[in-house]
Structure to design on (231 residues):
């Protein structure tokens, strides 16, 4: 299954690298407006949501709920057993739980949505499905081309044109704008402004309590007017 996937597995221990784009996005407080650059906006959304405790807790609750859902398969016994094994071994053997957690996080926090790779034993629509795996939404580009609706860029920089039978792309509230190619408006985008306000209030209170509010001036008695004017 691993050899038939478009994803490249690490050959050695890797340290996550932070790109210049991600660094700048984490500094910028203004999120790119929806529709202008979906890729850069999603990077900014990824950097933002873990910084606001109430929002991140809400996302955790939803993700945990979805991961805890029961599911039942119906069909011929042999088919059911094979599909059940495939789902339990989803995401390159990491299991259903890790697979659905990753997909749900992308689905609710990325306008691009969540992506599932359908791994088949052959390059055709009728080839048997041997596994499913989560695809990083940040590496999946919607093309609008019927023959390859998604282009996935692996960790080595190689691009893979995915056929319709190789990928499932889902987004919340997909836009009716034709050129958006199915990019939607995720839950995070819908609550973003209020979440930013809550984050700013939390930072303000922390700075006040810790005495690290750099823009605040503390005045004590005994200071002459001339000293204040000089300052």
């Amino acid at each position: 299954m691993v050899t038939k996937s478009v994803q490249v597995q690490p050959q050695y221990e890797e340290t996550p690298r932070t790109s210049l784009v991600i660094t700048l996005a984490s500094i910028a407080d203004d999120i790119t407006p929806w529709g202008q650059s979906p890729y850069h906006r999603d990077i900014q959304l990824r950097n933002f949501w873990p910084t606001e405790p109430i929002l991140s807790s809400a996302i955790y609750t939803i993700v945990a709920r979805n991961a805890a859902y029961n599911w039942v398969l119906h069909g011929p016994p042999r088919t059911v057993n094979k599909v059940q094994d495939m789902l339990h071994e989803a995401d390159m053997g990491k299991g259903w739980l890790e697979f659905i957690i990753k997909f749900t996080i992308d689905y609710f926090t990325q306008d691009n949505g969540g992506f599932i790779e359908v791994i088949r034993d052959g390059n055709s629509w009728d080839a048997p499905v041997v596994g499913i795996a989560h695809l990083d939404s940040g590496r999946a580009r919607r093309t609008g081309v019927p023959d390859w609706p998604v282009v996935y860029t692996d960790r080595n920089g190689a691009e893979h044109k995915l056929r319709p039978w190789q990928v499932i792309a889902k987004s919340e509230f997909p836009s009716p704008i034709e050129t958006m190619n199915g990019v939607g408006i995720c839950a995070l985008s819908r609550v973003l402004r209020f979440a930013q306000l809550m984050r700013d209030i939390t930072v303000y209170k922390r700075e006040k309590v810790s005495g690290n509010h750099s823009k605040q001036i503390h005045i004590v008695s005994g200071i002459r007017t001339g000293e204040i004017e000089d300052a």
In short: The chain has a mean pLDDT of 83. Residues 25 and 44 are 5 Å apart (CA to CA).
